[in-house]
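HUMAN: Ready with one sample?

ASSISTANT:
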Amino acid sequence: MDSKHLTLTDRVFYRFIDFFLLAVLIIVAIPMWSTITLSFRSNTFIGSNLEGMFLPPWSWSTAAYRALLGNNGFVNAFINSLKIFIFGVASALFLTIPLAYVLSVKTLPGRKPLTIIILIPYLFHVGLIPGYLVVNRLGLSNHLAAIYLPVAISTYNCLIMRGFFEGIPDELKESARIDGAPEITVLLRIILPLSKPIIMTIGLYYGVQFWNDFLHAMIYITDSALNPLPILLRNILMASGMNEFVETNAFGEAPIQAIKAASVFMAAIPMIIAYPFIQKYFTKGTLLGSVKG
């Protein structure tokens, strides 16, 4: 809308929104900047000015990052989280896409009862103990698959994707069926090429979920060699095992506070890198899926 045609009330409202969003940005940016600067501080600077938030350029140090990257436990945990992220997102999309497509077929017999069956466990969670017994009897304990396979299909994500599929014109699907194409061909040749926004959006949802999953790793993983990054990050932040990082640091003694901050920042880097590439699909995929659903 042209600003010349805005009333005084509208202008005040938009200015309020601008200042509100600016305040939110500052609230989010200050802790992030504080964490980054703390992670680059030298040992002497931390000892003399731990409460400071901004770091003069001459005091920057990479000792904390070198300590983390030189530690086999941190590198192994990062690799484990990367495996969970890759295999988790791949398996989740592999299972969610066909289910969402089946639910989007309006002529499917029993479509509504099937939707209700899918909704029941979403509304009434069975709890941790039955879930643990199932995972244990399937032999998934102490396997990385125990973290992502039990939650590979999210009901919420499936319904959002179903809504997007329903928004694709029926004429495209019917023309392929008239030509004799089976449903798998309709899905692969017509639906998927048109569904990149929702696939990328749901993939991001799953990726964030698996990358930050702490609860399932704590329950199902007892082998320290299989610990993902959230478990190690929790140990570092609680100062558990910090002597391991300080004493075996080949680059000199790294400040504990800087190691904690560096571990938090490095754990967020993959999501920070991935989000800009998916951002252009994010709004379109979410809005279309929710409106059509």
Remarks:
- Residues 256-292 form the longest helix (37 residues).
